[in-house]
Every structure is written in structure tokens, then in C-alpha cells.
Write a structure and sequence with these properties.
It is a single chain. 83% of the residues lie in helices and 0% in strands. The protein contains 11 helices and no strands.
């Protein structure tokens, strides 16, 4: 802890780098996976092909992907673009399976009602299906956020910046305090991002909060009613 308190400026600078390397791929992967997952949801063959492809991509070790990507795209191993592309692939691979599952969770009667009132398929997808699938997507995003944060830390082995550099530097100089400080900041970062994703998910689904209030009132009122009898 002493090392952390004496290096707060450095911790903040590394945290900003870590956030950029882990969160930008999550946003890019979300932009790619949501339309792709919605497109393949209703087609069994495409859905299976997408699932198999995403599984293959996700089984590639992160360090190996960091090293191999510069042979495919015009970047260097230590370029931020190389890290962002690699983690975007992982994020897309996870989300492209989660999006169809989230859309499957939308009640069929809700879809039928939306179609009955005149919603076209694309309009229904944007205004009904996707909003109602947000709770399931949020659960997947929480996993992806923590995964990306940990992968960026692992990337420090080959010189990628971020909080993981405290691990390698602490190991090389035999400073256990630096390693412990890196772990603490990394855990705090993951916890903060997880809480923020949950809060954004609740703000994006106000009807979920409205549905919880009557349930809470019913639970509170039940014992009172029973006592009156």
C-alpha cells in the first residue's frame, strides 16, 4: 500500500492507458456484434457458423494473438492499435453469441403485440427487441469488461502499457510492493467498471425499476394485511 500512496500520479496515468486499451475494444465489439448477432439470430445455419467461428477466435491465446496480428495488419506488436484490434476480436467473439441469446429472452407475446400494432421487423428490433434484451446484454458486458481488463494486464509480458507494467517491473526489480499495488489498482478498476455497467444498464431500462416497486410494496403490505385479520 505504501508504494501505491507514493506513486498515485503514475497509477492514475497507467489506469487511463489501461482503460483506453480495454474499454475501446468493448465499445467497438458492441457496435459490431449487436447488428451481426441480430442478423444471424433467426437463421440456424448462420447462427451455428457464427458460434463456431467465435469459439475458435476466443480459444486463441491472447499473447499469441498480440504477436501474430502484426503479420496480418500493418501494426507493430507494441502499437495500441494492435491491442485494440485483438481485444475487439475477443469482445466480438463473446458478444456475437450473447446477442442472439439476449434476443431469444424477449417474450414471444411482446414481439407478436409489436407486430400487431404495425411495427416492421427492423423497427421492432430497434424499439422493442433490443431494449428488452439489455438486461441479458449487460450481464455479458460485465464479463467482457473484466476479461479485457485482465487481458491488457497479461499483455504487459510483451511490453504493452497499462497497470500490468507494475507486475513486470516489480518482478524484475524484486519489489513486491509494486506488484501488490498493481493488483489493488487493477481490482479497484474492475470493480468500478462493473458497477458503472450495472448503473448504465438500470438507467437504460427504467421499466425494470418500475416493475420492482410494486413487488416491493406487495412484499411489505402482505404481513400487514395478515396481521389485520
Amino acid at each position: 500500500m505504501q508504494y501505491l500512496f507514493t506513486h498515485l500520479d503514475n497509477a492514475w496515468a497507467l489506469t487511463i492507458i489501461h482503460l483506453r486499451l480495454s474499454m475501446v475494444p468493448m465499445l467497438l465489439g458492441l457496435l459490431i456484434a449487436v447488428p451481426l448477432g441480430a442478423f444471424v439470430q433467426r437463421t440456424t445455419i448462420l447462427r451455428r457458423v457464427t458460434t463456431v467461428t467465435s469459439s475458435i477466435i476466443f480459444t486463441i491465446p491472447s499473447l499469441a494473438l498480440f504477436v501474430v496480428l502484426p503479420l496480418i495488419i500493418p501494426t507493430r506488436i507494441l502499437d495500441e492499435a494492435n491491442v485494440i484490434v485483438a481485444l475487439t476480436l475477443y469482445t466480438t467473439a463473446l458478444l456475437v453469441r450473447a446477442v442472439p441469446e439476449a434476443l431469444d429472452a424477449v417474450p414471444g407475446q411482446v414481439r407478436d403485440a409489436a407486430t400487431a400494432v404495425g411495427y416492421r421487423p427492423l423497427t421492432r428490433m430497434l424499439k422493442v427487441d433490443l431494449p428488452l434484451s439489455i438486461p441479458v446484454l449487460v450481464a455479458s458486458l460485465r464479463v467482457i469488461a473484466v476479461t479485457n481488463i485482465s487481458m491488457v494486464a497479461v499483455g504487459s509480458v510483451i511490453g504493452i502499457g497499462g497497470l500490468g507494467s507494475w507486475f513486470t517491473m516489480g518482478y524484475q526489480t524484486n519489489k513486491s510492493g509494486q506488484i501488490v499495488a498493481g493488483i489493488i489498482v487493477l481490482l479497484l478498476l474492475a470493480a468500478v467498471i462493473d458497477v458503472l455497467i450495472v448503473l448504465v444498464g438500470r438507467l437504460a431500462t427504467p421499466w425494470e425499476r418500475a416493475a420492482r416497486k410494486p413487488r416491493r410494496r406487495a412484499v411489505v403490505a402482505a404481513p400487514v394485511t395478515g396481521g389485520a385479520r
